[in-house]
Design brief:
Layout lengths: L15 H20 L2 H4 E4 L26 H10 L4 H15 L7 E3 L5 E3 L5 H4 L2 H4 L4 E4 L13 H14 L12 H7 L3 H11 L2 H23 L1 E5 L4 E4 L2 H8 L7 H22 L1 H5 L10 H20 L14 H21 L6 H21 L2 H5 L15 H31 L1
Antiparallel strand pairs: 1-4, 2-3, 5-6
Helix pairs in contact: 1-14, 1-18, 7-15, 8-9, 10-11, 10-12, 10-18, 12-14, 12-16, 12-18, 16-18
This protein binds flavin-adenine dinucleotide.
The site of flavin-adenine dinucleotide has 25 residues, from helix 7, helix 8, helix 10 and helix 16.
Amino acid sequence: IYLCPTGNLDDCACDVETIDHFNNDQLFPKLQNLLESDYFRFYKVNLNKPCPFWTSSSHCGLRHCAVKPCSPVKCIKISLCFQYSADANKQLEECEKEQHLGAVDVSLRWTDEKKLYYSSNLDLTVCGSADEASPDSQYVDLLLNPERFTGYKGPEAWQIWNSIYEENCFKPYTVKRPLLPDSFRSSSGGEARKFYSWLDGQCVEKRAFYRLVSGLHASINIHLSARYLLDDNWFQREWGHNVTEFRQRFDSELTAGEGPKRLRNLYFLYLIELRALAKVLPFFQQPSFHLYTGRPEEDKKHKEQLLQILQLARSFPLHFDERSLFAGDEKEAAKLKEDIRLAFLNISKIMDCVDCFKCRLWGKLQTQGLGTVLKILFSERQIEALPMSSNQRPSFQLSRQEIVSLFNAFGRISTSVRELKNFRSMLAEER
Ligand code: FAD
Protein backbone atom coordinates (compact mmCIF):
# COMPACT_ATOMS: atom_id res chain seq x y z
CA ILE A 1 0.00 0.00 0.00
CA TYR A 2 1.32 3.40 -0.97
CA LEU A 3 0.56 5.91 1.76
CA CYS A 4 -0.04 9.35 0.44
CA PRO A 5 2.59 11.90 1.50
CA THR A 6 0.75 14.51 3.53
CA GLY A 7 3.45 17.18 3.36
CA ASN A 8 1.92 18.25 0.09
CA LEU A 9 -1.80 17.66 0.27
CA ASP A 10 -2.15 17.97 -3.47
CA ASP A 11 -0.19 14.76 -3.87
CA CYS A 12 -3.05 12.96 -2.22
CA ALA A 13 -5.40 13.45 -5.09
CA CYS A 14 -2.83 13.33 -7.83
CA ASP A 15 -3.87 9.96 -9.07
CA VAL A 16 -7.45 10.85 -9.81
CA GLU A 17 -7.71 8.13 -12.43
CA THR A 18 -6.94 5.43 -9.89
CA ILE A 19 -9.67 6.74 -7.61
CA ASP A 20 -12.15 7.04 -10.49
CA HIS A 21 -11.54 3.51 -11.64
CA PHE A 22 -11.67 2.07 -8.12
CA ASN A 23 -14.79 3.97 -7.17
CA ASN A 24 -16.82 3.88 -10.35
CA ASP A 25 -16.17 0.30 -11.38
CA GLN A 26 -15.83 -1.45 -8.04
CA LEU A 27 -16.96 0.32 -4.92
CA PHE A 28 -19.83 2.56 -6.03
CA PRO A 29 -22.24 -0.18 -7.27
CA LYS A 30 -21.72 -2.31 -4.15
CA LEU A 31 -22.22 0.63 -1.83
CA GLN A 32 -25.41 1.78 -3.57
CA ASN A 33 -26.83 -1.68 -3.12
CA LEU A 34 -26.11 -1.68 0.60
CA LEU A 35 -27.51 1.81 1.16
CA GLU A 36 -30.87 0.67 -0.17
CA SER A 37 -31.25 -1.82 2.68
CA ASP A 38 -33.59 -1.03 5.60
CA TYR A 39 -30.71 -0.74 8.02
CA PHE A 40 -29.09 2.09 6.07
CA ARG A 41 -32.00 3.94 4.57
CA PHE A 42 -33.56 5.16 7.84
CA TYR A 43 -31.79 7.97 9.66
CA LYS A 44 -32.95 9.48 12.93
CA VAL A 45 -32.70 13.24 13.01
CA ASN A 46 -34.13 16.29 14.73
CA LEU A 47 -34.91 18.78 11.98
CA ASN A 48 -36.71 21.19 14.28
CA LYS A 49 -33.89 22.39 16.44
CA PRO A 50 -33.77 26.18 16.48
CA CYS A 51 -30.71 27.92 15.08
CA PRO A 52 -28.49 28.84 18.05
CA PHE A 53 -26.71 31.71 16.26
CA TRP A 54 -29.23 34.00 14.62
CA THR A 55 -32.96 34.42 14.20
CA SER A 56 -33.87 32.87 10.97
CA SER A 57 -35.48 35.56 8.83
CA SER A 58 -37.05 33.33 6.24
CA HIS A 59 -38.58 29.92 6.50
CA CYS A 60 -37.86 28.07 3.37
CA GLY A 61 -41.19 27.65 1.64
CA LEU A 62 -39.63 25.96 -1.35
CA ARG A 63 -41.55 22.86 -2.32
CA HIS A 64 -38.43 20.84 -2.99
CA CYS A 65 -37.02 21.60 0.44
CA ALA A 66 -39.70 19.57 2.23
CA VAL A 67 -38.71 16.29 3.88
CA LYS A 68 -41.18 13.44 3.48
CA PRO A 69 -41.69 11.53 6.72
CA CYS A 70 -41.50 7.78 6.53
CA SER A 71 -44.74 5.85 6.80
CA PRO A 72 -45.86 5.50 10.48
CA VAL A 73 -46.10 1.71 10.28
CA LYS A 74 -42.61 1.42 8.91
CA CYS A 75 -41.20 3.97 11.36
CA ILE A 76 -42.58 2.27 14.44
CA LYS A 77 -41.27 -1.07 13.29
CA ILE A 78 -37.91 0.42 12.49
CA SER A 79 -37.57 2.24 15.80
CA LEU A 80 -38.35 -0.97 17.65
CA CYS A 81 -35.90 -2.99 15.64
CA PHE A 82 -32.84 -0.82 15.42
CA GLN A 83 -30.50 -2.12 17.94
CA TYR A 84 -27.66 -4.09 16.59
CA SER A 85 -26.60 -6.17 19.53
CA ALA A 86 -27.69 -7.14 22.98
CA ASP A 87 -24.74 -5.21 24.33
CA ALA A 88 -25.72 -2.03 22.51
CA ASN A 89 -29.27 -2.40 23.76
CA LYS A 90 -28.08 -2.59 27.30
CA GLN A 91 -25.90 0.49 26.87
CA LEU A 92 -28.68 2.43 25.19
CA GLU A 93 -30.85 1.75 28.21
CA GLU A 94 -28.11 3.16 30.39
CA CYS A 95 -28.00 6.24 28.20
CA GLU A 96 -31.69 6.78 28.57
CA LYS A 97 -31.38 6.60 32.33
CA GLU A 98 -28.64 9.21 32.20
CA GLN A 99 -30.75 11.47 30.03
CA HIS A 100 -33.62 11.30 32.46
CA LEU A 101 -31.23 12.50 35.09
CA GLY A 102 -30.33 15.35 32.75
CA ALA A 103 -26.73 14.27 32.83
CA VAL A 104 -25.94 14.08 29.15
CA ASP A 105 -23.48 16.63 27.90
CA VAL A 106 -23.58 16.32 24.14
CA SER A 107 -20.32 18.07 23.44
CA LEU A 108 -17.45 16.67 21.48
CA ARG A 109 -14.37 16.41 23.60
CA TRP A 110 -10.96 14.88 23.71
CA THR A 111 -10.49 12.28 26.33
CA ASP A 112 -7.44 12.16 28.53
CA GLU A 113 -5.84 9.89 25.98
CA LYS A 114 -6.44 12.72 23.48
CA LYS A 115 -8.74 10.71 21.34
CA LEU A 116 -11.61 12.31 19.52
CA TYR A 117 -15.02 11.04 20.29
CA TYR A 118 -18.52 12.19 20.88
CA SER A 119 -18.71 12.30 24.56
CA SER A 120 -21.04 12.64 27.46
CA ASN A 121 -20.81 11.59 31.06
CA LEU A 122 -21.33 8.35 29.27
CA ASP A 123 -19.55 7.87 26.00
CA LEU A 124 -21.91 9.23 23.36
CA THR A 125 -20.39 6.91 20.80
CA VAL A 126 -22.73 4.46 22.45
CA CYS A 127 -25.57 6.80 23.28
CA GLY A 128 -25.60 8.42 19.86
CA SER A 129 -25.76 12.08 18.98
CA ALA A 130 -27.90 14.66 20.71
CA ASP A 131 -30.35 14.34 17.85
CA GLU A 132 -30.71 10.64 18.33
CA ALA A 133 -31.57 11.14 21.97
CA SER A 134 -34.04 13.98 21.44
CA PRO A 135 -37.78 13.24 21.68
CA ASP A 136 -38.25 15.61 18.70
CA SER A 137 -36.21 13.33 16.45
CA GLN A 138 -37.85 11.30 13.74
CA TYR A 139 -36.78 8.57 11.41
CA VAL A 140 -36.42 9.79 7.85
CA ASP A 141 -36.37 7.50 4.85
CA LEU A 142 -33.33 8.70 2.92
CA LEU A 143 -34.41 6.99 -0.30
CA LEU A 144 -37.63 9.03 -0.30
CA ASN A 145 -35.65 12.23 0.21
CA PRO A 146 -32.72 12.21 -2.20
CA GLU A 147 -30.12 14.94 -2.08
CA ARG A 148 -30.77 17.03 -5.19
CA PHE A 149 -31.58 20.52 -6.42
CA THR A 150 -33.93 22.29 -4.01
CA GLY A 151 -33.69 25.91 -5.09
CA TYR A 152 -32.11 26.91 -1.76
CA LYS A 153 -29.69 29.72 -2.62
CA GLY A 154 -28.98 33.42 -2.21
CA PRO A 155 -28.11 35.28 1.04
CA GLU A 156 -29.47 32.56 3.39
CA ALA A 157 -27.36 29.82 1.81
CA TRP A 158 -24.30 32.10 1.60
CA GLN A 159 -24.68 33.01 5.25
CA ILE A 160 -24.35 29.33 6.13
CA TRP A 161 -21.31 28.73 3.93
CA ASN A 162 -19.74 31.97 5.14
CA SER A 163 -20.21 31.01 8.76
CA ILE A 164 -18.81 27.56 8.14
CA TYR A 165 -15.63 28.88 6.51
CA GLU A 166 -15.29 32.10 8.44
CA GLU A 167 -15.77 30.70 11.90
CA ASN A 168 -14.24 27.30 11.48
CA CYS A 169 -11.39 27.53 9.06
CA PHE A 170 -9.15 29.17 11.59
CA LYS A 171 -9.35 32.65 10.20
CA PRO A 172 -6.16 34.62 10.78
CA TYR A 173 -7.90 37.91 11.53
CA THR A 174 -11.43 39.16 12.07
CA VAL A 175 -13.14 39.51 8.74
CA LYS A 176 -16.36 41.37 8.26
CA ARG A 177 -16.84 40.03 4.76
CA PRO A 178 -16.87 36.40 3.75
CA LEU A 179 -13.66 34.42 3.81
CA LEU A 180 -14.35 32.96 0.41
CA PRO A 181 -12.06 33.23 -2.56
CA ASP A 182 -14.71 34.35 -5.10
CA SER A 183 -16.04 37.12 -2.97
CA PHE A 184 -12.51 38.19 -2.19
CA ARG A 185 -11.84 38.36 -5.89
CA SER A 186 -14.91 40.43 -6.67
CA SER A 187 -14.16 42.91 -3.89
CA SER A 188 -10.52 43.37 -4.84
CA GLY A 189 -8.13 41.55 -7.15
CA GLY A 190 -5.45 40.69 -4.61
CA GLU A 191 -7.77 39.22 -2.00
CA ALA A 192 -7.97 35.71 -3.44
CA ARG A 193 -4.18 35.61 -3.46
CA LYS A 194 -4.23 36.86 0.13
CA PHE A 195 -6.59 34.07 1.10
CA TYR A 196 -4.44 31.36 -0.45
CA SER A 197 -1.18 32.70 0.86
CA TRP A 198 -2.76 32.72 4.32
CA LEU A 199 -4.03 29.17 3.79
CA ASP A 200 -0.60 28.01 2.58
CA GLY A 201 0.92 29.42 5.76
CA GLN A 202 -1.33 27.27 7.91
CA CYS A 203 -0.17 23.96 9.29
CA VAL A 204 -1.03 20.81 7.43
CA GLU A 205 -3.89 19.90 9.81
CA LYS A 206 -5.71 23.20 9.34
CA ARG A 207 -5.31 23.05 5.60
CA ALA A 208 -6.63 19.52 5.69
CA PHE A 209 -9.67 20.66 7.65
CA TYR A 210 -10.38 23.45 5.16
CA ARG A 211 -10.11 20.95 2.33
CA LEU A 212 -12.57 18.55 3.95
CA VAL A 213 -15.17 21.31 4.31
CA SER A 214 -14.55 22.54 0.78
CA GLY A 215 -14.79 18.96 -0.52
CA LEU A 216 -18.16 18.56 1.17
CA HIS A 217 -19.32 21.87 -0.33
CA ALA A 218 -18.20 20.71 -3.79
CA SER A 219 -20.01 17.41 -3.35
CA ILE A 220 -23.31 19.12 -2.44
CA ASN A 221 -23.01 21.37 -5.48
CA ILE A 222 -22.27 18.41 -7.76
CA HIS A 223 -25.41 16.65 -6.51
CA LEU A 224 -27.64 19.63 -7.14
CA SER A 225 -26.18 19.94 -10.67
CA ALA A 226 -26.61 16.21 -11.36
CA ARG A 227 -30.19 16.04 -10.09
CA TYR A 228 -31.38 19.41 -11.25
CA LEU A 229 -35.02 20.29 -11.77
CA LEU A 230 -34.98 20.56 -15.55
CA ASP A 231 -38.70 20.85 -16.12
CA ASP A 232 -41.57 21.50 -13.72
CA ASN A 233 -45.04 21.99 -15.12
CA TRP A 234 -48.56 20.56 -14.89
CA PHE A 235 -47.69 17.59 -17.02
CA GLN A 236 -44.29 16.53 -15.88
CA ARG A 237 -41.42 17.05 -13.52
CA GLU A 238 -38.04 16.12 -14.89
CA TRP A 239 -34.84 15.79 -12.91
CA GLY A 240 -31.47 15.38 -14.55
CA HIS A 241 -27.99 16.67 -15.29
CA ASN A 242 -27.59 20.39 -15.81
CA VAL A 243 -24.26 20.79 -17.55
CA THR A 244 -24.44 24.60 -17.59
CA GLU A 245 -24.90 24.67 -13.81
CA PHE A 246 -21.96 22.30 -13.39
CA ARG A 247 -19.71 24.39 -15.65
CA GLN A 248 -20.57 27.58 -13.81
CA ARG A 249 -19.46 26.01 -10.58
CA PHE A 250 -16.45 23.97 -11.64
CA ASP A 251 -15.11 25.06 -15.03
CA SER A 252 -11.59 26.38 -14.63
CA GLU A 253 -12.10 29.47 -16.80
CA LEU A 254 -15.51 30.41 -15.44
CA THR A 255 -14.28 30.16 -11.86
CA ALA A 256 -10.79 31.58 -12.45
CA GLY A 257 -9.18 28.31 -11.44
CA GLU A 258 -11.26 27.75 -8.29
CA GLY A 259 -13.45 24.94 -9.68
CA PRO A 260 -10.65 22.39 -10.23
CA LYS A 261 -9.23 23.14 -6.77
CA ARG A 262 -12.63 22.40 -5.26
CA LEU A 263 -12.83 19.13 -7.15
CA ARG A 264 -9.41 18.16 -5.81
CA ASN A 265 -10.76 18.84 -2.34
CA LEU A 266 -13.59 16.43 -3.09
CA TYR A 267 -11.04 13.72 -3.93
CA PHE A 268 -9.17 14.54 -0.76
CA LEU A 269 -12.36 14.07 1.26
CA TYR A 270 -12.93 10.79 -0.60
CA LEU A 271 -9.49 9.51 0.42
CA ILE A 272 -9.96 10.45 4.06
CA GLU A 273 -13.35 8.74 4.29
CA LEU A 274 -12.11 5.68 2.42
CA ARG A 275 -9.20 5.42 4.83
CA ALA A 276 -11.60 5.40 7.77
CA LEU A 277 -13.64 2.61 6.18
CA ALA A 278 -10.48 0.57 5.69
CA LYS A 279 -9.50 1.06 9.32
CA VAL A 280 -12.82 0.27 10.91
CA LEU A 281 -13.07 -3.25 9.44
CA PRO A 282 -12.17 -5.05 12.72
CA PHE A 283 -15.13 -3.40 14.46
CA PHE A 284 -17.59 -4.85 11.95
CA GLN A 285 -15.83 -8.21 11.91
CA GLN A 286 -16.66 -8.82 15.55
CA PRO A 287 -18.98 -11.82 15.78
CA SER A 288 -21.22 -9.87 18.15
CA PHE A 289 -21.87 -7.19 15.54
CA HIS A 290 -25.17 -7.60 13.71
CA LEU A 291 -27.15 -5.39 11.38
CA TYR A 292 -30.42 -5.93 13.13
CA THR A 293 -33.70 -5.09 11.39
CA GLY A 294 -35.74 -8.10 12.40
CA ARG A 295 -35.16 -10.13 9.22
CA PRO A 296 -32.20 -12.38 10.08
CA GLU A 297 -31.56 -13.77 6.59
CA GLU A 298 -31.42 -10.33 4.99
CA ASP A 299 -29.42 -8.89 7.87
CA LYS A 300 -26.83 -11.60 7.46
CA LYS A 301 -26.60 -10.96 3.72
CA HIS A 302 -26.19 -7.22 4.28
CA LYS A 303 -23.49 -7.74 6.88
CA GLU A 304 -21.58 -9.80 4.33
CA GLN A 305 -22.01 -7.06 1.74
CA LEU A 306 -20.78 -4.51 4.25
CA LEU A 307 -17.68 -6.57 5.03
CA GLN A 308 -16.95 -6.95 1.32
CA ILE A 309 -17.06 -3.18 0.91
CA LEU A 310 -14.67 -2.67 3.81
CA GLN A 311 -12.31 -5.34 2.45
CA LEU A 312 -12.42 -3.53 -0.86
CA ALA A 313 -11.63 -0.24 0.88
CA ARG A 314 -8.62 -1.97 2.47
CA SER A 315 -7.39 -3.12 -0.93
CA PHE A 316 -7.22 0.44 -2.31
CA PRO A 317 -3.61 1.04 -3.38
CA LEU A 318 -3.20 4.78 -2.65
CA HIS A 319 -4.25 5.26 0.94
CA PHE A 320 -3.85 8.54 2.76
CA ASP A 321 -1.48 8.39 5.73
CA GLU A 322 -3.24 10.21 8.54
CA ARG A 323 -0.44 9.43 11.00
CA SER A 324 1.51 12.44 9.83
CA LEU A 325 -1.37 14.64 10.97
CA PHE A 326 -1.00 15.64 14.62
CA ALA A 327 2.45 14.10 14.59
CA GLY A 328 4.43 17.07 15.95
CA ASP A 329 4.95 18.33 19.46
CA GLU A 330 2.47 16.67 21.82
CA LYS A 331 1.19 19.90 23.37
CA GLU A 332 0.76 21.57 20.02
CA ALA A 333 -0.97 18.50 18.61
CA ALA A 334 -3.40 18.49 21.54
CA LYS A 335 -4.20 22.17 20.97
CA LEU A 336 -4.76 21.54 17.26
CA LYS A 337 -7.09 18.67 17.98
CA GLU A 338 -9.00 20.87 20.37
CA ASP A 339 -9.33 23.57 17.68
CA ILE A 340 -10.61 21.03 15.21
CA ARG A 341 -12.97 19.52 17.75
CA LEU A 342 -14.50 22.93 18.45
CA ALA A 343 -14.72 23.80 14.78
CA PHE A 344 -16.46 20.53 14.14
CA LEU A 345 -18.93 21.07 16.92
CA ASN A 346 -19.64 24.53 15.57
CA ILE A 347 -20.35 23.24 12.06
CA SER A 348 -22.80 20.73 13.49
CA LYS A 349 -24.64 23.59 15.19
CA ILE A 350 -24.61 25.77 12.08
CA MET A 351 -26.45 22.98 10.26
CA ASP A 352 -29.46 23.77 12.48
CA CYS A 353 -29.54 27.19 10.79
CA VAL A 354 -30.04 25.79 7.29
CA ASP A 355 -33.54 26.94 6.35
CA CYS A 356 -34.15 24.28 3.72
CA PHE A 357 -35.10 21.08 5.55
CA LYS A 358 -33.88 18.73 2.84
CA CYS A 359 -30.50 20.51 2.77
CA ARG A 360 -30.44 20.45 6.58
CA LEU A 361 -31.10 16.72 6.64
CA TRP A 362 -28.21 15.88 4.30
CA GLY A 363 -25.97 18.54 5.84
CA LYS A 364 -26.47 17.06 9.30
CA LEU A 365 -26.00 13.52 8.10
CA GLN A 366 -22.78 14.33 6.28
CA THR A 367 -21.37 16.32 9.19
CA GLN A 368 -22.07 13.43 11.52
CA GLY A 369 -20.55 11.04 8.99
CA LEU A 370 -17.38 13.10 8.83
CA GLY A 371 -17.26 13.27 12.62
CA THR A 372 -17.43 9.48 12.69
CA VAL A 373 -14.61 9.32 10.15
CA LEU A 374 -12.38 11.43 12.40
CA LYS A 375 -13.35 9.37 15.41
CA ILE A 376 -12.27 6.20 13.59
CA LEU A 377 -9.02 7.67 12.33
CA PHE A 378 -7.99 8.71 15.80
CA SER A 379 -9.08 5.54 17.54
CA GLU A 380 -6.62 3.25 15.83
CA ARG A 381 -5.34 1.71 19.05
CA GLN A 382 -8.83 1.04 20.42
CA ILE A 383 -9.94 -0.56 17.17
CA GLU A 384 -6.90 -2.81 17.09
CA ALA A 385 -7.57 -3.81 20.70
CA LEU A 386 -11.12 -4.93 19.98
CA PRO A 387 -11.85 -8.30 21.56
CA MET A 388 -12.83 -11.09 19.24
CA SER A 389 -14.90 -12.76 21.92
CA SER A 390 -18.27 -11.28 22.76
CA ASN A 391 -17.75 -11.62 26.53
CA GLN A 392 -15.46 -8.64 26.92
CA ARG A 393 -16.67 -5.06 26.77
CA PRO A 394 -15.31 -3.51 23.54
CA SER A 395 -12.94 -0.54 23.79
CA PHE A 396 -14.43 1.05 20.69
CA GLN A 397 -18.10 1.47 19.84
CA LEU A 398 -20.16 2.97 17.05
CA SER A 399 -23.85 3.69 17.50
CA ARG A 400 -26.28 2.72 14.76
CA GLN A 401 -26.64 6.43 14.02
CA GLU A 402 -22.91 6.79 13.47
CA ILE A 403 -22.81 3.71 11.27
CA VAL A 404 -25.69 4.94 9.11
CA SER A 405 -24.19 8.42 8.78
CA LEU A 406 -20.71 7.05 8.04
CA PHE A 407 -21.85 4.88 5.14
CA ASN A 408 -24.39 7.32 3.75
CA ALA A 409 -21.94 10.23 3.92
CA PHE A 410 -19.39 8.18 2.06
CA GLY A 411 -22.14 7.14 -0.37
CA ARG A 412 -22.67 10.83 -1.19
CA ILE A 413 -18.98 11.42 -1.93
CA SER A 414 -18.74 8.20 -3.90
CA THR A 415 -21.78 9.28 -5.95
CA SER A 416 -20.18 12.67 -6.60
CA VAL A 417 -17.06 11.01 -7.96
CA ARG A 418 -19.29 8.86 -10.18
CA GLU A 419 -21.22 11.95 -11.33
CA LEU A 420 -17.98 13.66 -12.31
CA LYS A 421 -17.49 10.90 -14.86
CA ASN A 422 -20.96 11.61 -16.30
CA PHE A 423 -20.30 15.33 -16.49
CA ARG A 424 -16.92 14.77 -18.15
CA SER A 425 -18.60 12.69 -20.89
CA MET A 426 -21.33 15.29 -21.36
CA LEU A 427 -18.80 18.10 -21.60
CA ALA A 428 -16.77 16.08 -24.11
CA GLU A 429 -19.90 15.58 -26.24
CA GLU A 430 -20.56 19.33 -26.21
CA ARG A 431 -17.14 20.06 -27.70
P1 FAD B 1 -22.45 28.66 -3.01
O1 FAD B 1 -22.32 27.22 -3.29
O2 FAD B 1 -23.51 29.13 -2.10
O3 FAD B 1 -21.04 29.15 -2.46
C1 FAD B 1 -20.86 30.43 -1.85
C2 FAD B 1 -19.42 30.86 -2.12
O4 FAD B 1 -18.55 29.85 -1.56
C3 FAD B 1 -19.05 30.89 -3.60
O5 FAD B 1 -19.30 32.14 -4.16
C4 FAD B 1 -17.58 30.58 -3.56
O6 FAD B 1 -16.84 31.75 -3.24
C5 FAD B 1 -17.41 29.64 -2.40
N1 FAD B 1 -17.38 28.23 -2.78
C6 FAD B 1 -18.24 27.55 -3.56
N2 FAD B 1 -17.91 26.25 -3.59
C7 FAD B 1 -16.82 26.10 -2.80
C8 FAD B 1 -16.02 25.01 -2.45
N3 FAD B 1 -16.30 23.78 -2.87
N4 FAD B 1 -14.97 25.23 -1.64
C9 FAD B 1 -14.67 26.47 -1.17
N5 FAD B 1 -15.42 27.55 -1.47
C10 FAD B 1 -16.47 27.37 -2.28
N6 FAD B 1 -28.86 23.36 -2.66
C11 FAD B 1 -29.59 22.42 -3.33
O7 FAD B 1 -30.14 22.70 -4.40
N7 FAD B 1 -29.71 21.15 -2.82
C12 FAD B 1 -29.13 20.78 -1.66
O8 FAD B 1 -29.28 19.62 -1.22
C13 FAD B 1 -28.36 21.75 -0.93
N8 FAD B 1 -27.79 21.46 0.26
C14 FAD B 1 -27.16 22.43 0.96
C15 FAD B 1 -26.64 22.13 2.22
C16 FAD B 1 -26.02 23.11 2.97
C17 FAD B 1 -25.48 22.76 4.33
C18 FAD B 1 -25.92 24.44 2.44
C19 FAD B 1 -25.28 25.53 3.25
C20 FAD B 1 -26.41 24.74 1.19
C21 FAD B 1 -27.05 23.75 0.44
N9 FAD B 1 -27.55 24.03 -0.82
C22 FAD B 1 -28.26 23.07 -1.50
C23 FAD B 1 -27.30 25.32 -1.46
C24 FAD B 1 -26.04 25.29 -2.37
O9 FAD B 1 -24.94 24.69 -1.71
C25 FAD B 1 -25.60 26.69 -2.80
O10 FAD B 1 -25.41 27.48 -1.66
C26 FAD B 1 -26.61 27.37 -3.71
O11 FAD B 1 -26.86 26.58 -4.85
C27 FAD B 1 -26.08 28.75 -4.18
O12 FAD B 1 -24.86 28.54 -4.92
P2 FAD B 1 -23.85 29.69 -5.27
O13 FAD B 1 -23.38 29.48 -6.68
O14 FAD B 1 -24.45 31.01 -4.98
O15 FAD B 1 -22.56 29.47 -4.37
